[in-house]
Write a structure and sequence with these properties.
The complex is a heterodimer of chains A (736) and B (160). With 736 residues, chain A is of the alpha+beta class. Chain A contains 18 helices and 26 strands. In chain A, helix 11 links the parallel strand 21 and strand 22. In chain A, helix 2 packs parallel to helix 3. Helix content of chain B is 34%, strand content 13%. A 5-stranded mixed sheet of chain B has the order 2-1-5-3-4, with helices on both faces. The chains are: A alpha+beta (736), B alpha+beta (160). At the A-B interface, helix 5, helix 6 and helix 16 of A face helix 1, helix 2, helix 3, helix 4 and helix 6 of B.
Chain lengths: 736, 160
């Protein structure tokens, strides 16, 4: 998008059944308007209503959200939350997201906390604003506050009213957040709970939405980093003459950081491809086949008892014990569009447009890298390709910033496909060993889980970025992999439980958080093991779970899921004879043990000759409390299911002693169109409950439901993901 | 210098012969709706029409489309929304949306060939990749669009 383009920043809402298309007054895309907006002195203090909300003179409202819309529907949900409390039309709200100069630091958009935490801060800000406006309106109208009602941008009685804009328009509220400001009674909700359409979608279907990939600045150049041919290789020599035939290309080298900059993107792509450089060998990787060995051997940083209830010390010698180990591979976020960012680094300041989940978190890293004061570095969120955790966006931003600083012009960097799959920080490998003993009635008497996982450094939530590492520039310390130890203890009644984490030195490939961090593997292990225990106890897997759950919301999702898929005792479903075996499996999670409830069941077919798994139907009952926008929740649940199926069936980052070898869609295979199963989804709306996250939870039970269904079909336990056809075939042959 | 017909407009572009159409569209004609995904014609994010057929613009050199009609996502619904775009809105298809320009262009080519595609037709034609997991919605949106008259022209397409 060019700066001269007008009328492209449109806001579209379905209003009274008609599509209303609004154009911003300036005609500039919002991000650019933000960048050039002179009225930016604006508090970012989380204790102030003004950090979150502003009312313009025309009665429209600006919402400042530190949480961003990663394709999840926040952009409409956040508006609905504020619109409801202030009784205004959501179409009257502009939303500014993830701008370090304008939005408060509400933490990264991660861990499924967008609505649950960020949205609730906005709700409290709106409720506090409402309380303040009531008092001001009462004074203005000389009436009691209890007489007043809010409606469509006004406050008043049947006979007299005043516009909110008149009370506060273009001025600060100057009110501190009141955590006890009364909230609207959910029984009166008219905006929250409705599946309003997402305002950004029409632009995404007409090619007019500005992704960060499409953002341009006057005089902007195109850059490409050249990553080494091996992890941690040193740059020995660069032959700039090798691209002398490409006019106008600049080569930038800072120690082991190498990049090219050109005036058009294709020239940058060619230059990166054709520039000759000599590198040392890499530091030596263990190879993906040796991950389990590496995990068992260490080196370890420390052991941590994550859960301890009762004494399980006799379990290891208990003759009743069952034991099994489960393994999850390193996986890429595998964003469909490789990471991208635009940076404009000047002598005294810098602006970076990025699709980061965490603009505030990485602001210090860029400031340190560029040698600028923190407040002189501004990051602005623009949509990227879906990231599902920290993918390469923050690295692309560092690449763009270093290159922009070197050439003195704005630089856009988009990674190539092999960069994204090869160099995005990866979902860490996980290994779990479970042991349990059942009592005479088949209830869990003792449970032990040991997990081997790469270390996350507490309170140092920073993934080391490639560009400053290569360029030899210091950056904030830290290692973030997400909350990977949760959900390794069973959600069912268990007399004695112990969960131990063996924290490893950082993984062979740079780890970061990937959707439902840790929980996908932990829930796979726990729920597949539960299935093994149920079979051992000769109890139907649904009944085994149901009878030992005490939480009624957990029982309800299990029951609803069973109804959706038409659950029958497992034996009836089995068809183990013939070329095609059919089976059905079930799994359950109470996400993080205190958030969303999900039960999932699926029907699969296994082609015995090839080992291919075909997922036919997936049923999911989902309770995330109050749903602000059920349509957006449904989209997330569908996405969780399909993406987690992809991760469970196909995905593994492979690497040899030097480099990642799964760097295209052939070697890093993801789910394809014909492989998408029928989806049966039952969303439970709980208007009186707090909202919980929907972006991750439904990913967790997928692998276990799948593995359990495969067991039901062919009697083989899959304990190592992904469940590739070769792996299934090998397992079938081993048991034949 | 190449003369290209894109979305019914003629553009003169001064680019190298081997520049893929994708970058000509994005970088030199100002049509960034078409996206880069893999660069080797696998993922389909860069799908456009050339003389009515869906092609992967990342792997077509500019010289190969001279004298042909190129249609991009920006031109799909000239004079209004294409019925597929309307259907995509009604179904709220995407999550991040990055792959959807390509999905729509692939679906539009499919509907031209087969106005009432079966699930098997869709499986065969829609080789585009989506990482967010919208396949089920894309399928539903194609079926829904096939069921409605073409709102862009107001003329109901006859079954071919």
């Amino acid at each position: 998008m060019k700066i001269s383009d007008v009328s492209l920043a449109r806001r579209e809402f379905l209003k009274g059944g008609a599509l209303v298309i609004g154009f911003s007054l300036t005609g500039l895309p919002l991000a650019l308007a933000q960048a050039t907006d002179a009225r930016t002195p604006h508090t970012l203090n989380l204790d102030e209503v003004d950090a979150f909300l502003a009312v313009r003179k025309d009665g429209s409202v600006i919402v400042y959200s530190g949480k961003v819309d990663l394709g999840t529907g926040h952009r409409i949900a956040m508006r609905q939350i504020v619109a409801e409390e202030l009784s205004i039309d959501p179409a009257r709200i502009d939303l500014i997201e993830g701008d370090t100069a304008l939005t408060p630091n509400q933490g990264p958009t991660a861990g499924s906390t967008g609505v649950m935490r960020g949205g609730m801060q906005l709700r409290q800000a709106a409720a506090t604003a409402r309380e303040a406006l009531l008092a001001r309106a009462a004074a203005h109208l000389q009436t009691g506050a209890s007489e007043l009602i809010f409606s469509d941008g006004y406050v008043g009685t049947a006979t007299a009213r005043v516009a909110i804009a008149e009370l506060v328009g273009d001025r600060a509220f100057g009110v501190r957040m009141n955590p006890k400001a009364p909230l609207k009674n959910p029984a009166q909700y008219s905006v929250v709970g409705r599946s309003l359409p997402r305002p950004d979608l029409p632009g995404k279907f007409t090619g007019r939405h500005t992704y960060v990939h499409d953002f341009t600045l006057p005089g902007m150049l195109h850059g490409r980093p050249l990553r080494p041919p091996a992890v941690a290789a040193r740059l020995l020599e660069v032959d700039a003459a090798s691209i002398a035939h490409l006019p106008g290309v600049q080569v930038v080298r800072i120690k082991d950081f190498l990049g090219v900059v050109a005036s058009d993107e294709w020239a940058a792509v060619r230059a990166a491809r054709e520039l000759k450089a000599r590198w040392s060998a890499g530091s030596g990787l263990i190879g993906h086949d040796n991950l389990a060995l590496w995990a068992r051997r260490g080196p370890f940083v420390k052991d941590e008892i994550v859960v301890s209830k009762g004494d399980t010390s006799d379990l290891a010698n208990d003759p009743r014990q069952f034991a099994a180990s489960y393994q999850w591979p390193i996986q890429s976020h595998a964003s469909l569009g490789p990471s991208c960012a635009v940076a404009d680094v000047r002598a005294d300041s810098a602006m970076i447009w990025s699709a980061s989940q965490a603009t505030h978190r990485y602001q210090p890293a860029y400031a340190q890298m560029l040698g600028l004061p923190l407040e002189k570095v501004r990051l602005i969120y623009l949509d990227g390709s879906g990231c599902y955790g920290m993918n390469g966006h923050d690295d692309a931003a560092a690449d763009a910033a270093l290159l922009s600083k070197a050439v003195g012009k704005p630089v856009r960097v988009q990674w190539m496909r092999q960069d994204e799959l090869g160099w995005d920080p990866k979902g860490p490998p996980q290994l779990l060993a479970l042991r349990a003993a059942l009592d005479a009635q088949g209830h869990i008497d003792a449970w032990e889980a040991e997990m081997w996982v790469p270390l996350a450094t507490a309170n140092l939530e920073h993934v080391p970025l490639l560009a400053p590492s290569d360029a030899g520039i210091a950056q904030p310390a830290g290692q973030m992999v997400g909350l990977v130890t949760q959900n390794a203890d069973p959600p069912y009644r268990a007399a004695r439980v112990k969960v131990t984490a063996h924290w490893l030195e950082p993984a062979p490939l740079r780890p970061s958080n990937i959707r439902a961090p840790g929980k996908v593997a932990n829930c796979f292990a726990v729920e597949a093991f539960i299935d093994e225990l149920a079979v051992a106890a000769k109890i139907d897997p649904l009944e085994f779970r149901r009878r030992d759950l005490t939480d009624p919301r957990g029982i309800e999702v299990l029951d609803r899921c069973a109804a959706l898929i038409g659950w029958k005792p497992a034996e009836a479903m089995r068809r183990r004879t013939g070329a095609m075996a059919r089976g059905r499996g079930i799994a359950y999670v109470h996400y993080k043990h205190n958030e969303t409830y999900v039960a999932m069941a699926m029907d699969v077919e296994v082609v015995k000759k090839s080992g291919e798994i075909r997922v036919k139907r997936v049923a999911c009952a989902h309770d995330c409390g109050l749903m602000i926008n059920p349509g957006a929740v449904r989209n997330q649940v569908e996405g969780n299911i399909l993406q987690a199926l992809s991760r469970s069936l196909f995905e593994e980052t492979t690497f040899d002693s030097q480099r990642v070898t799964s760097v295209d869609w052939g070697s890093y295979r993801i789910l394809r169109f014909p492989e998408a199963p029928e989806l049966l989804i039952d969303l439970i709306q709980r208007t009186g409950e707090p909202p919980l996250g929907a972006g991750e939870a439904a990913s967790s039970p997928v692998a276990a439901a799948l593995a359990n269904a495969v067991y039901d079909a062919v009697g083989v336990r899959l304990r190592t993901a992904p469940f590739s056809a070769e792996r299934v075939l090998a397992a079938l042959r081993a048991t034949a | 210098m190449f003369k290209l017909n894109v979305n019914g407009k003629v553009h003169q572009v001064d680019v190298e012969t081997d520049m893929p159409l994708l970058w000509v569209l994005r970088d030199h004609i100002g049509l960034p709706g078409t996206k880069y995904g893999c660069g080797i014609a696998v993922c389909g994010a860069c799908t456009v029409h050339v003389d009515g057929a869906a092609v992967r613009s990342c792997s077509v050199p500019v010289s190969a489309v001279v004298g042909k009609k190129v249609l991009t996502i920006e031109g799909l619904g000239q004079g209004g929304l294409h019925k597929l775009q309307a259907s995509w809105i009604a179904q709220q298809v995407p999550q991040c949306g990055y792959c959807q320009s390509g999905m729509l262009m692939a679906a539009a080519a499919l509907l031209k060939e087969k106005p009432r595609p079966t699930d098997a037709d869709i499986d065969q034609a829609m080789t585009n990749l989506c990482r967010c997991g919208t396949y089920a919605r894309v399928r539903a949106a194609i079926h829904a669009a096939a069921d409605i008259a073409d709102t862009a022209t107001g003329v109901k397409r006859s079954a071919s």
